[in-house]
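ARCHIVE CARD
SHELF: 3
SLOT: left
DATA:
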Amino acid sequence: MANKKVPVRQCVGCREMKPKRELIRVIRTGEDTVCLDATGKKNGRGAYLCLNRECLERAIKSRGLEHSLKTAVPKEIYAEFEKEIEKLETR
């Protein structure tokens, strides 16, 4: 039986290619709102981040999310991401 190919995506923080399941998806919807997509199936332009604070900080500093999503990301959204990543890190 053939091995199933694992989808990989690039983290906008550390720029490493990792399996899609290890990353969290951030999307820009049609209404230009930015939100987390835990399911990975919502419609919208997506970017991926590792589930750790260092990658989020790198993405903020390099503006990686803004470049990938092609829109400005408000500070409140970054604060929300930090809270979500904290929840996910403690699991």
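SLOT: right
DATA:
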Amino acid sequence: MNLTIIAVGKLRESYYRAGVEDYLQRIKRFLPIEQIETAIGTGEEGNGKGKGALLREAEGIERHLIRGGKIVVLDAAGTSLSSEEFSEWIQKTMNSAVSRVNFIVGGAWGLAPKLIDRADMRLSLSSMTLPHELARLVLVEQIYRALSLWKGLPYHK
């Protein structure tokens, strides 16, 4: 199974980039993973807000979705899983012969409803609001933790 993280915008801060890259390298020991950064949409006012901006971001994300792969969107209103439950979900997904899981991380204004509706799973990392850059870091850490649990490594204590 391959993993893809499709995220709106670039990681601006070096500490987010370093953390995400570290976990991506760790994950690659278990499964192929790639990260794709798409353009931030701009609204009619050029400020990144508004329905038009979200739709443009959704179009950028959809260009990278591979047919037949599962789509998981990060959504504060989604399902909350413990690290163990997330690990079990990843294991079940791998055993179901799914070739790819696409994790979608929206930008500062979230995701277009059409992407959320299309998702196979809506995953909440926290009931608290997280900056989208931090959400991406938490996501890759939790993927690594889930794979460590699967392999029985001591990372998860």
